[in-house]
């Protein structure tokens, strides 16, 4: 997205914007469910999008184990 500024957020900012507790974001990141693989890095709006997707799947009955297989496939499709 040429010309658009990527807004970066800290873990705490992402938690506040998403409504997902910081410890859950850390757990999801460590499980490999988010594109950002380092919880000490800054998160982008893309990471928030993926977090919203993960959270939606979990709220609708998927398990973290289910998503460990699914989310990498979703990421591949998004970048293809």
Keywords:
single chain; 80 residues; disordered N terminus
CA radius of gyration: 12 Å
Tally of strands: 0
Into which percentage range does the β-strand content fall?
A: under 5%
**Percentage of helical residues?**
55-70%
Tell me the overall shape: globular
Ends apart, CA distance between termini? 16 Å
Overall SS class = mainly alpha
Which residue ranges are poorly predicted, with pLDDT under 50 across at least 5 consecutive positions?
A: 1-5
Question: Secondary-structure element order, as H and E?
Answer: HHHH
Query: What is the arithmetic mean of pLDDT?
Result: 86
Largest sheet: none
Treating each run of at least 4 consecutive H or I residues as one helix, how many helices?
A: 4
Q: How would you portray this structure in words?
A:
This protein has four helices and no strands. The protein is globular. By secondary structure, the chain is mainly alpha-helical.
Provide a compact summary of the structure.
With about 80 residues, this protein is mainly alpha-helical.
Topology:
Layout (H helix, E strand, L loop, with lengths): L10 H8 L3 H9 L14 H15 L4 H16 L1
